[in-house]
């Protein structure tokens, strides 16, 4: 039975009901035996959302969509792209560039193409917001060389645009890439661009490092810079957060002591970070003790404090205890917010208690709180676990009815489940729906769709989506697993030319490939019997300045010996020998290491096959014994 939030099955449309407010304050709407309440505030907010949605169709909307279609069509052919943009009648102007960059989403290459084109148009100059947005996008793509070139351009043409916020964005991007030294270098480079870092900028750097798992480096930097930048409570709070996030409570308590020595008393944020540390370490008794201590010291727990404890209990499948904390929170006069309700709904849905999740959603709506995309995502994930595609699709419709636009995460869940159930065409329909609504599919959306096509043997469509992903600038090291699966699937299906076409697309679109990407392609060719092609691409790899891994070289030499092809073997060997010398490595050591790695991999594969065989044998014996008993 569908558990959906069906709203207003009357002859009046939802838009009309929102504008007239004809539902009484205590109205309850039935949905297939389940009652859901929609307060007047919920309907008012939905109406406001719809009105806002209409306003979005302003002077920019038509041009944004026109530009986006052109970028998608000609992104790989710059001269044609620039000509198409000129002939489109679109005029580069303030506000349009920012909207186009936002429309491109994760497809940073598309956004950058338009950014460059717009900068060449007469009478137009990029705004501070456009530069800042471009720095964010390029940083996310890890195109840090281009980012610094952009900063240099700003210094020459618009030096007043170089504000601390631009450098803070860059710091955060380096920190998220775990490039700690580079993030710190930004702090040192700022004075060269006429911007002096202060305590606030330094605090942002510490915050970025601590939030991205580099708290140890952040603590060392804090000690090193404490005479250059006067410590603030934000600095201490960031360090406390970092240690608590990693569950290192002793280090967190040391920070707390230093904070008090510096003359700062813990506030609610500090206490909540400590609470989170206890929660991460599953020390719930200490967490409850800290709640009591907060009350004694006059720092009453807020909704965030209780939500932290509720989340920790939910993660341990202690949902009933979490409900008691929730009720205790309300008794103490602390109003639950959307985050608290979402946390509880997430906890119940995680452990398969969807009915309770819907009950809490009903309670939330009765109290006038508007659920958000995250609230629905947790319910959606619970339906995905049960493989209930129809319920997921219905939930998307109901979200739209009450004015909550599903985001990419929601759509990804639906597409992933559709592909898992073999209903790839349904996934394609949802994909088209995303594009039609002006939402840019992210890298995860592409990966889900490509994997779905590969599993169904629809390799041409998989290649089309993969090339589209490359064209939007979304291929990076984390997607190499998908690249490997696609190339191996193509070669197993004897579609060598299609595989070459994919690789050619990667090369011509300017993707920054490392040795791992080349190794995936070369090994895929070799494993599927295309030894000469594998050797040819190995030579291309070395021409690109990348040295093959030792086991790749050893594997190719074995293959060439079987083919009695001494000429190619000699050519590869000579190039590898020169590259080894350039890297202060002896060729003999390189060759020996390759042979050793090959043997170890073969042994690992053999051991794995033996383990799987034993599991099958003992598993079937155990099953037979159980049936006998």
From TrEMBL:
The UniProt record lists the keyword Cell wall biogenesis/degradation: no
Ranges of biased composition (kind: Basic and acidic residues): 598-608
Swiss-Prot/TrEMBL PPR repeat ranges: 163-197, 198-228, 232-266, 267-301, 302-336, 337-371, 372-406, 407-441, 442-476, 514-548
Superkingdom classification of source: Eukaryota
Keyword annotations of the record: Repeat
InterPro entries noted in UniProt: PPR-containing_protein (IPR050667), PPR_rpt (IPR002885), TPR-like_helical_dom_sf (IPR011990)
Keyword Repeat among record annotations: yes
Region listing for Disordered, in residue ranges: 598-629
Compositionally biased tracts (Basic residues): 609-620
Family: Belongs to the PPR family. P subfamily.
Name used for this protein in its record: Pentatricopeptide repeat-containing protein
């Amino acid at each position: 039975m569908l558990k959906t939030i069906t709203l207003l099955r009357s002859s009046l449309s939802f838009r009309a009901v929102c504008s007239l407010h004809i539902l009484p304050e205590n109205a309850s709407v039935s949905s297939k035996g389940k009652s859901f309440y929609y307060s007047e505030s919920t309907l008012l907010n939905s109406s406001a959302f719809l009105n806002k949605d209409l306003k979005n169709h302003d002077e920019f909307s038509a041009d944004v969509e026109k530009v986006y279609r052109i970028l998608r069509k000609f992104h790989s052919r710059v001269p044609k792209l620039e000509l198409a943009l000129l002939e489109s009648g679109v005029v580069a102007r303030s506000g349009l560039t920012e909207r186009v960059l936002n429309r491109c989403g994760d497809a940073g290459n598309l956004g950058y193409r338009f950014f460059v084109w717009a900068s060449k148009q007469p009478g137009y100059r990029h705004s501070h917001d456009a530069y800042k947005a471009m720095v964010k996008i390029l940083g996310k793509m890890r195109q840090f060389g281009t980012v610094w070139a952009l900063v240099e351009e700003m210094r020459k043409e618009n030096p007043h645009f170089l504000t601390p916020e631009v450098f803070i964005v860059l710091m955060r991007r380096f920190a998220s890439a775990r490039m700690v030294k580079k993030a710190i270098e930004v702090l040192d480079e700022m004075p060269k661009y006429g911007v002096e870092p202060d305590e606030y900028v330094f605090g942002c750097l510490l915050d970025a490092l601590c939030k991205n798992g580099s708290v140890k480096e952040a603590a060392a930097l804090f000690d090193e810079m404490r005479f250059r930048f006067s410590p603030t409570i934000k600095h201490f709070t960031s360090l406390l957060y970092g240690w608590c996030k990693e569950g290192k409570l002793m280090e967190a308590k040391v920070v707390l002591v230093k904070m008090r020595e510096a003359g700062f008393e813990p506030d609610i944020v500090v206490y909540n970070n400590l609470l989170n540390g206890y929660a991460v370490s599953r020390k719930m008794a200490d967490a409850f003790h800290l709640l009591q201590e907060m009350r004694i010291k006059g720092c009453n727990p807020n909704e965030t404090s209780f939500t932290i404890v509720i989340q920790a209990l939910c993660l341990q499948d202690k949902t009933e205890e979490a409900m008691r904390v929730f009720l205790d929170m309300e008794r103490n006069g602390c109003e639950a917010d959307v985050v608290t309700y979402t946390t509880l709904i997430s906890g119940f849905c995680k452990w398969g208690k969807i009915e309770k999740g819907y009950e809490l959603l009903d309670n939330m709506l009765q109290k006038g709180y508007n659920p958000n995309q995250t609230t629905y995502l947790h319910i959606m994930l619970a339906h995905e676990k049960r493989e209930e595609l129809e319920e997921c699709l219905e939930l998307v419709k109901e979200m739209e009815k009450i004015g909550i636009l599903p985001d990419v995460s929601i759509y990804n869940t639906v597409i992933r489940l559709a592909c898992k159930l073999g209903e790839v065409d349904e996934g394609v329909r949802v994909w088209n729906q995303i594009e039609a609504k002006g939402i840019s599919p992210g890298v995860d959306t592409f990966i889900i769709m490509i994997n779905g096509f590969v599993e169904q043997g629809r390799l041409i469509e998989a290649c089309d989506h993969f090339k589209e992903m490359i064209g939007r600038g979304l291929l990076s090291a984390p997607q190499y697993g998908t690249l490997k699966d696609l190339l191996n699937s193509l070669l197993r299906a004897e579609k060598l030319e299609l595989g070459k076409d994919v690789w050619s697309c990667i090369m011509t679109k300017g993707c920054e490939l490392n040795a791992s990407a080349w190794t995936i392609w070369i090994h895929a060719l070799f494993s599927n019997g295309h030894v000469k092609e594998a050797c040819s691409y190995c030579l291309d790899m070395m021409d690109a300045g990348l040295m093959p891994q030792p086991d790749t070289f050893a594997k190719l030499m074995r293959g060439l010996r079987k083919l009695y092809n001494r000429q190619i073997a000699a050519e590869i060997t000579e190039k590898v020998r020169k590259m080894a010398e350039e890297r202060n490595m002896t060729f003999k050591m390189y060759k020996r290491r390759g042979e050793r790695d090959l043997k170890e991999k073969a042994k690992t594969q053999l051991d794995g096959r033996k383990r799987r065989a034993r599991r099958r044998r003992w598993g079937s014996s155990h099953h037979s014994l159980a049936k006998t008993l």
